[in-house]
Specification:
The complex is a heterodimer. By secondary structure, chain A is mostly helical. Chain A has eleven helices and two strands; from the N terminus they run αααββαααααααα. In chain A, helix 2 packs across helix 6 and helix 4 packs across helix 10. By secondary structure, chain B is of the alpha/beta class. In chain B, the strands form four sheets. A six-stranded mixed beta sheet of chain B has the order 5-6-7-3-8-9, with helices on both faces. In chain B, helix 3 crosses helix 4. Classes of the chains: A mainly alpha, B alpha/beta. Chains A and B meet through helix 2 and helix 5 of A and helix 3 of B.
């Protein structure tokens, strides 16, 4: 590379760090997909959920929500679920396992910069989440005939909502991992917290406004995230954007990030 | 300039001084063994040298860099190799993939193929990590420690869990690396390992270095009384022997600081009577004797507090 081409690039080290991120994401993905049983069940779980509930919903409609088809609620709902399960549930469990087996400590002792590692883990998590989104969009469109976001505003809103939500729930997942003492506890603790919150947030049925559950759910981020995804499907034009819901998701994400940064540990808790 | 210099290193966990004024130097190309009971401060000391843990007081330089200075952390870590006690490798990647990935973290790595040869995993190069035996995973761990071509290699109990053949192979590798000029700092519970590999040994107990020197003369074990042991020949009573001994037979022991004269008397006596002194040995304190004496006879009196990695006394 000549000196002149170098000067127009950001900087040699920034480029090489970017290459490290791309490379690390590649190995993260390799590590994930080389365990096909784990990969298929991780990606397929939300899809299976959607297929079962979508099939059982048939042509039911929701009388208290503009009389839309139930499945028109389920597709965005389970897309939100898939993103949350990858970025909150799976990430928290993976991080506990990596911490307790010493993988994080080893990486910390290598020259790989910390931000490179964390960025790679987040990007890899989003990639896995979005592979589920793509599958569910296809199933929603072709199997259930659901209206997908089609105009630029709707598609843009969907992408932004999913990326922002994915990152926020990932921050919460990292924070969650710091409260889990060992590998054996990781699955049960994370799943319990996740499913209780999901129940309170009306994933399986839209909450009636004014109900007790609806009031509780407004405090937590999951309901707002589901609503934000839902609106990109059902509201044309600029009303596809639900700034209020997204803001609450982001606030939770920031809280998660602060807790994660304060409590993050590289070394195993058990020796 | 020494590869590592430590002066007055202190690190406390709450009330407990886990590392309490430790000082030592390791020259470039030297193999340095840190011995001590669990919780004596070995791991804390090494983690401070690696830049993984912060110190409370003391001067530390590793390859000329202060490991407590975060700004130079990456420059330091690109010259370090670390082999941890935990088997820490992604199970679904192959040996070659794991080594290639980690090689990419370093500015001037060793060729991956060469590392695979060095750790003796050529036949397993494309096998998934989870299919390796415990000993093979341990060797892969060592491979990850050396793939960055480090100037300084930390080995935390590198041969724990290896069979004798695996241990010999690892020793050969350490000797080879040291021969190439790599400085090695190792912790071990095996005295024969320290004796076989180390140029310098330090014994640490309750956060303090209680002995430091070449393994052959540690704790003055090359000085003082020697012990002569042999089996009493048939038809001989201890009273017939030309020297005063302990024991009624068949095992006979005698302690003396004039072992040359004692041996001369014994062997002349045996040759004249044409009897054998089966199992004749002369020894001074073993490294283990010195270790047990300096760390307290019962090494189990220390326990590790798993949460903080801090040692606590029962």
């Amino acid at each position: 590379m000549s000196a002149r081409t170098e000067s127009i690039l950001p900087s040699r080290s920034a480029m090489s760090e970017l290459r490290l991120v791309v490379r690390q994401v590649g190995y993260e993905q390799l590590s994930f997909w080389l365990n096909p049983v784990g990969a298929i069940f991780t990606v397929g779980f939300s899809l299976l959920f959607l297929l079962l509930l979508g099939a059982s919903a048939g042509s039911s409609r929701i009388s208290y929500l503009h009389n839309i088809k139930l499945v028109q609620y389920y597709v965005p709902g389970f897309i939100a679920y898939g993103v949350m399960s990858a970025s909150f549930n799976s990430l928290a469990i993976t991080l506990v396992i990596r911490r307790e087996t010493g993988l994080l400590k080893r990486l910390r002792l290598s020259p790989l910069p910390t931000w490179t590692l964390l960025t790679s883990i987040l990007l890899s998590t989003l990639l896995i989440a979005f592979s589920q989104v793509v599958l569910m969009l296809a199933v929603g469109r072709w199997a259930f005939g659901v209206h997908l976001p089609s105009d630029a505003s709707g598609i843009g809103a969907l992408v932004v909502v999913l990326v922002v939500g994915g990152l926020s729930f990932a921050a919460l997942g990292i924070a969650m991992s710091t409260f889990i003492p060992n590998q054996q506890a990781a699955g049960p603790v994370t799943s319990t917290v996740f499913f209780v919150l999901l129940f309170l947030s009306g994933l399986w049925f839209p909450l009636k406004s004014g109900s007790a559950l609806a009031k509780i759910s407004t405090f937590f981020p999951i309901r707002h995230f589901i609503t934000a995804v839902f609106k990109t499907f059902s509201h044309p034009g600029s009303s596809a954007w639900s700034g209020h819901d997204l803001l609450i998701v982001v606030i939770w994400g920031v809280v998660g990030a602060v807790v994660a940064l304060r409590r993050f540990q590289w070394a195993p808790h058990q020796t | 300039m020494p590869a590592v210099s430590v002066h007055g290193l202190v690190r406390s966990y709450g009330q407990l001084r886990a590392v309490d004024g430790v000082s030592f130097e390791v020259d470039a190309g030297e193999v340095f063994a840190l011995l001590g009971p669990n919780g004596a401060g070995k791991t804390t000391t090494i983690e401070i040298l690696e830049g993984f843990r912060e110190r409370d007081a003391g001067e530390v330089r590793v390859l000329g860099i202060d490991p407590g200075d975060r700004r130079s952390g990456r420059r330091l870590r690109s010259q370090l190799g670390v082999v941890l006690q935990e088997l820490a490798v992604e199970p679904f990647l192959s040996v070659r993939q794991v080594l290639a990935r980690n090689a990419g973290y370093y500015p001037a790595p060793r060729p991956v193929g060469e590392v695979i040869e060095l750790i003796g995993l050529a036949e397993k190069a494309d096998a998934k990590v989870k299919t390796l035996s415990g000993g093979q995973q341990r060797r892969l761990d060592v491979g990850l420690g050396i793939v960055g071509n480090p100037a300084l290699l930390f080995l935390d109990e590198p041969t724990t869990g290896l069979d004798p053949a695996g241990r010999r192979t690892s020793w050969e590798l350490v000797r080879r690396l040291a021969g190439e000029g790599t400085t090695v700092i190792l912790t071990t519970h095996y005295m024969e390992e320290a004796e076989a590999l180390a140029d310098q040994v330090a014994i640490i107990a309750s956060g303090k270095i209680v002995a430091h020197g070449p393994p052959a003369s540690l704790g003055g074990r090359d000085q003082g009384a020697a012990t002569i042991r042999f089996q009493l020949p048939a038809g001989v009573t201890p009273a017939n022997l030309p020297v005063a001994v302990v024991g009624e037979g068949p095992s006979i022991e005698l302690r003396t600081d004039r072992e040359l004269e004692a041996l001369y008397e014994l062997t002349r006596w045996a040759l004249e009577r044409e009897v054998q002194l089966t199992g004749l040995t002369v020894s001074r304190h073993t490294l283990e004797d010195v270790y047990l004496q300096l760390t307290g006879a019962d090494p189990d009196r220390f326990q590790t507090d798993s949460a903080a990695g801090a040692p606590v006394r029962e």
